[in-house]
Amino acid sequence: MGVVSILTHSFTDGYNREFGRVFGGGLERYILDLCSVIRELGHIPEVHQLSYYEAFQTRTEQIDVFGYAYDMDDVPEAFARMAAAARGPVIYASCLWQPISYKPGSLGICHGINWDRPGLPLETKQQVAEHIQLALDGLVRIVSVDSHFQTFCRAACTFDDPQQVVLIPNAVDTSYFTPAPPRPRFGKEQEAEWLSAWKEDLASQEEEAGVVISGLNAKEAILLDNADNSNQANEIADSVASIHSTALPSTIARPLRILYPRRISMERGIIPMMLAADRLLGAYPDLEIEFAGELVEGSTVGRAFRYWHRTHPHQDRILQRTYDFRDIREAYHQADIAVIPTVFSEGTSYACLEAMSCGIPVVASNVGGLNDLIQDGFNGLLVPPGDEALTAALVRLLEDRAERERLGIYARETAVAYDLSGWRRKWSSVLETFLADAGLREGIRG
C-alpha cells in the first residue's frame, strides 16, 4: 500500500475559504470518485491543490488535502512546489494547458478544452498547443473526459503512441440518478403505498426492459420506441399522458420548473440563462426557474446574480440553492426541463448526464463534450451558445409536453451507456498499469 498524489487547481472550497468542504463542481466530483478507485486498488490518495488564500492542510472525505498559496500569474511554479511535496506516483488532474514542468513518469487528466473561450487571441491559442505538447512529451499517459481534446492533440500536436491519450468520458450513477416517480394526485395517506408500488414497478422495468421511463410503463415505452416518425411518437405520448392524467382525480396544480444545475459562472452560461429567464418568466406566469449550483460570494458574477435575483419582478419564481453532491437528485426530481447553456470550457458535463439519467429533457449548448452526449432532437436539444437559441428551445419544450416526455425517455436510455461502473472499470485498468510501471521504475532506481 502506497500514497498516490493528485495535483489540481481545485478540490476543497478555496473559492469561499471553506477548506474542509469539497467544492460542488465537476472537477471536484471527479477527483472524489478517482480517490475512491485508488483506495479500492489498495493505495492511499492525497490531494494537493491551489489556494486563493493562505496555505492550508485539512482532511475531508477521508482524504488528506494540502493547499498552496500561489501567484495567479505563475501557476507552473505552484505545481512545481506541489510536485516536490507530493508522495508516491503523481497524477496532474488539471491545468495541462499551462507550461508545467512535469515530474517524470506521471499521469495527466484533461477535463475539457478551456481555450475555446470567445475573444481569446489567436496567438494565445497557438501557445496553448505548445503547452499541450509539453504535456504529451512529459506525461506517460493523458486521460481525456471527451473526444475534443483527443482530436485537438492529433490535429495540433505530435505523439508516437496512439494510446497515450485515453478517452474515458465522465459518468453517472444510473442506479441513484433515476427518473422521479410520477407526482401523486391524491391524499398523503395513500402516498406511501403508491410510492412502494412505483419502486417495485421501476425495478421490474430495469430488469426486464433495460429502460426506466418517468411516468410510463414498459408497454407504453415499446409503443413509443416503435413509432415510425416523430408525429406518431407525439400522438402516442399524448395518448399515454392522457391515460395517466385521468387515472386519478387531479387535486394538485404544479408549475413547470426549469433547472439550471451549474455553477453560477460566465463559462457555464449564467448570462444567457438569466436573459432567457427574463423572457420566459414574463411569458409564462406558472413557470419556476431554479439555479442549483455553486456561487462564489463576492465575485463579480456572484454579485450580479444576487442583485438580479433580488430586484427581479418575478423573484418569487426564481429559486437558488447550492446542493451537496448527495442531494442534487432532489433538484432533478422537481424539474421538468434541465438546461446546460455552457459558453466555453466544457467536458462531458456531470450535470447533463445526471439530468439525462433522471429522464429529464435537456437543452444544451453545442460546446465541448456536450455534443458527445446530446443528439439534437433524439435525446435532447442542442443549440449554439447564446440566449436567443436557448430561449427558443426552452419555449419549444414548455409548449410541448409530449416532446418533453419523448426526449426524456431517450435521455435516460443514453445515460445508461455512461454508467459509473464502466468508468470505474476503465480507470482501474489505467491505474493498475500506471502504478505497476511506477513501482517498476522505483525498483530500478532503488
TrEMBL record:
Against PANTHER family, the record matches this protein to: GLYCOSYLTRANSFERASE
Write the Enzyme Commission number(s) for this entry: 2.4.-.-
The answer to whether UniProt assigns keyword Glycosyltransferase to this entry is yes
Residues covered by the Glycosyl transferase family domain? 257-413
Q: What is this protein called?
A: Glycosyltransferase family 4 protein
Q: Does the keyword Glycosyltransferase apply?
A: yes
Superkingdom to which the source organism belongs:
Bacteria
Q: Which GO terms describe its molecular function?
A: glycosyltransferase activity
Give the species: Paenibacillus illinoisensis
UniProt KW keywords: Glycosyltransferase, Transferase
